[in-house]
Amino acid sequence: MGRSVFLVASLLLVFSSTPVWAEELTLYRLWQMALRNHEAPAIAEEGLNQARFDIKRAYSTLLPSLTVESTYTRYSEDKRVSGFLIQPEEAMRFEARLSQTIYNGGKEWSLLRQARKRLEATRWAEEGTKESLLLDVAGAFFNLLKAEKEVSIRKASLKRAEEHLRTSRALFKVGIATRVELLRAETEVATKQTELIEAEAAVTDAQALLRRLTGYNGKLMVKEPGEDVPLVATPEELLETALKERKDYQQKLMEEEIAKEGIRYAKGEFLPTLSIDGVYTWRDQSPRTSFFIEDILYGGLTVKLPLFEGGLRMAGLKKARSVLRQRELERYSLKRNIELDIIRLHNDTEKIASLVNALQKRLEFARENYRMALKQYRHGIIGSTDLVDAETVLVDAELSLMNARLDYRFAIMRLKRSTGTLLEEALKKMPEE
Fold this sequence. Notes:
single chain; Outer membrane efflux proteins (OEP); four-stranded antiparallel beta sheet; two-stranded parallel sheet; 10 helices
């Protein structure tokens, strides 16, 4: 019994010490989880369903309507005039009416066209919602990469500071370094420890945001993407692409078409309506009146032409034209904003690309400068202040280059979002379920 317990305990110890496999998540994998788990696409999908139901409602105006009605009436007493019964004690009535609008000024067809165009606009809005979510996830993803890389840089900086402290203690013992230099080295180690704690807290915050966007609850390990394709398109080419692919711009075009249909609908209010009705009525009375007719079947043709309604129709037409002008101005304003956005993002991307090259050289110089400063400090040529300054320049160069590289990748994502191509590219590269 003792051996069995010992064996089970040993196996548990072995398995508990074995590292658990965790998936290394790419940006495309996180995008896939966000589209599946975040509520924003689901909310947009419900809007799409409502637009589909509006089409069904618009279709209902083209189809005939059938209504049935039944009533029961109880009178206080029966009444007679000159021996004829004109009011019974009780009466029952059942009526079935079939109605069909033949012509309604084209309003029913305008409503149907509006519903179809509204569905198209809602579909563009849904895709725009997804694309915005992808950009948010990309931003959180690159922020997490920045935070993790900063932790690595801070750890290396802390390691150098601790090495500096050990060197300072050794030099202090042999009388080369002063007490002030030793205290400076100890202060530098404490500062580096504080910076590392803050960097690790930033990683936790970035992970929380990424989990919120993607719904991922496991151990969050992200994989840095490969190098992005350099930007070669001109702002004019990007603007041309944006006007074809931008979801919000296509949505504005659809809203403009809906406004045009609104004018056609308002004009239909001035035209006559023609409808046909077929009615069947069955009645019963107790006692039956003198000229009682049990059932009636008839058909009717109705023509309506509104002549005066206090200016309601004219006000509706003027409002519809105003809505169209508003939609045209909104589309034009969005076009100008897209043009400005693309120019700024294009310039920003080129600026960061140039900055990466400059920062790469700066980092090389900073590393060489720190290597020489450390060597000189160990030989007592320079003081600890110069070494700390060299190490500070090195850390700043490492952080600046790291941030610029990741900013460049995110700038390309933003530019793709601005041209409306981010979602299509993401859907092509997402892994299969």
